[in-house]
Prior knowledge:
By secondary structure, chain A is an all-alpha fold.
Amino acid sequence: MAIDRRELEGLIPALRRYARGLAGNRAAADDMVQDALLLALDRERQFRSGRLKPWVFAILSNVGRSAYRTRRREVPAVADVDLPDAGTDPAMRITVLAALSALPDEQRQTLLLTAVEGFSYRETAEILGVPIGTIMSRLSRARATLAERLEGAEIVALRRTK
Amino acid sequence: MSGAEINEEDLLAYADDRLDATRRAQVDAWLAEHPEDRARIDAWRQQNDLLHGALDSVAAEPVPAQLTAALHEKPRRHWRGPAIAAAIATLVAFPVGLAVGNYLWDQPTRQEAMDIATAGLDAHKIYAVEVRHPVEVGADEEQHLVTWLTKRLDVPVKAPDLSADGLRLLGGRLIPSGDKPAALLMYEGENGERYTLLIERATPQAMTAFRYAESGNIGAFYWIDGGAGYALSGPADRVRLLKVARAVYEQLES
């Protein structure tokens, strides 16, 4: 089934956000999104029906599993820097992204898909190809780890919301 | 209270607003008597706020041009079609199978692209500082320059016009990149800042996205496309470098 290009294009901002949470770094995140988009187009005949969004997020979840992390480890001599984001408290961003990066991949994916991307638990289970009980236990562990890591960042967070 | 059994999953779903009204009321009743669970839920909700605060700005950014461009390309032309098709054919449509990522960036392509980036950064460091002899053949002989380099590299060499980005062509030279010949074109901006574009022959089927590398205060965007590898190096101002790299890419594509 052909994919609606415009619909796919409309998903890019959310895909970039998800990828940034996974990779923690702008360049690697956009590489992931680009490869996911190309892969989605390449396999569009495999898209049966239903919603495009979870299908593309599933592809991006898979893309994020290996290639980009190993690439960065292999090339220590070449540094990859991030541009500052406008409009966000950089210290808070760094703290949160660092706490996220401490999570195992599958917990990070689960947390981002539910808490940030707003997928239901069932959709998240389908995207990641695991039972819903697994999603719940990953979520529970991810939240416990984050809570430990973010304890010191609480003040910053409160100040931000005021 | 209702006496309903409340478990961890209910608490998580409550924090994420995923419960129906009935269940939510039951959890409310539970929380009235269990302040420690109330505190956990508050902490989880704050995590959600923090995550949104750290990441939502990404979704609000303008989408980088190369991502929109990716949608309008004909990917099959560039892709290692058979290998990917075979890999995909073994996967069910949804959910996606494992390890797709490995096919996207196979090790040889990754290595090839990295070698191009390294060659570009090295060449830039050596030649961009040259005051009197930055190039072998000057821009006044541009036609000769590109004909000569095309012949030596055995890939089409064009000198993109970067005047829209405030850069004028100084000229170019032939340099070694590993055991291969490469072209190095040099541009200069109004403040004397220099950009170099390295071009060399690459594996015909290989294709990469734009990648960024940095060494010292020099940055490079590099990519492989259509049988050639490119590295655009210049001062490590990524915003400007990317803009120039896109201009190069667009002109080389046409």
